Fold RmlC-like jelly roll fold protein.
Amino acid sequence: MHPGDVIITPTWSWHDHGKKGADEEGGDESPVIWLDGLDLPSFIHFPVHFNEHYSAARYPATDVDSSPIVFPWRDMLAKLHDAPGSWAAVPYRNSDGREIGRVIGASAERLDKGAESPVRQETSSSVYHVIQGSGWSEIGGKSFSWQRGDTFCIPAWYKYKHVANGEDNGVYLYRFDDKPMLKSLGLLRTQMNGTHTFASLA
């Protein structure tokens, strides 16, 4: 796990989190903080919400150079740089082109120095995390300032846009949302620059 990486935990797969300490090879004393994107709000009232603990304190694992459930930030950064315009949004996708989850999707956005995103409105709810830079967002007619390390949310069907400060060298935002679930139910509706898009079950 490196700064900015996205790692998914597939259903019915054991997983745990940890960090090597100073007494372990390759470890150190510095803390690690990560953002968990959970589908708990969608399923907390369903009987499918439970967890199962592994028989040992730590799940045995082998180090690997790459994995289909790991999406390195360096790869996403290259895609954002290749995208045209002063604002770009690129979704995280599996190697087969599908969303990285059936309930939760993820994407990253780039705003150049002083740039702003289009005004958007969506039936999906989203959570944003600021990877780099500072700026502000207009959400439902109110302005909210943010900087690196901040996390904020966009409630469903609130109009919003992001603006990068002119002093910084651009902004990078990470986002996760419930678009895949709403799309599969035919409930996803988006509006950007006056153009409406509706999900279809056909």
Summary: The two ends are 39 Å apart (CA to CA). The domain at 6-198 is CATH 2.60.120.10 (Jelly Rolls). The mean pLDDT is 91.
